Amino acid sequence: MEIDLRLMRASDYDEILKMVITTWDYRSWVPKDLVEPMAEYFLSDLLQKSDHIVVVTVDGKPAGICAGDVLDYTKIQRFCLRKKTAALGAILKQTEPDSIFEKYIQTMALDQELLLQSKREFEGSLNLLLVNGKHRGLGLGKKLYNNFCEYLQKNGVRSFYLYTDDSSDYGFYEHNGLEKLVEKRFYWDEGNEETAETYYLYGRDFN
Hints:
This protein is an alpha+beta fold and 207 residues long. It has helices at 13-23, 26-29, 35-48, 75-95, 100-118, 140-154, 170-175; strands at 3-7, 52-58, 61-70, 124-131, 159-165, 179-187, 196-205. The chain has a 7-stranded mixed sheet with strand order 1-2-3-4-5-7-6, with helices on both faces. The radius of gyration is 17 Å and the shape is globular. The N and C termini lie far apart (35 Å). The relative contact order is 0.14.
């Protein structure tokens, strides 16, 4: 078995999209016709704002991905991002009230709210860390995570953050030096506890 790390290529996209759909089980909670478009929106949004995107391959085939960036957004850019997300949410309420995509946009706004609540300024962000379930136990996630941390430190970054939720393996982040800073409950179906998820903001400072 040959394991390697390299920068993402456009030809990796379809395989990574399949990983996203499977890992977050899109087919169980998203209407059939929206599974791929919603997963693509999620993936492309995260990749578009990342300046370091690395895949881990097993025998030449993508088996995981890590995407993050050195933050160089100005305060006005971050302000506009929040406004853009809020505007999209307002549009969807008028055109597709209570749609699953509207709820997803609300989680994006929630992420930004958590960052504001933390009252912290970070220099980097980890936007996506994903390993194909078939290859778990090989230490691929750790390889990707360490590579990302090295990238940040080479660029003089002293702190970074990430968003996650209670459906993800957030224990991995705690085990690797991140601290849970803020959390908030979110209801995909308002008032229905069975649809509730807790969203977290984690942060890490490099010594």
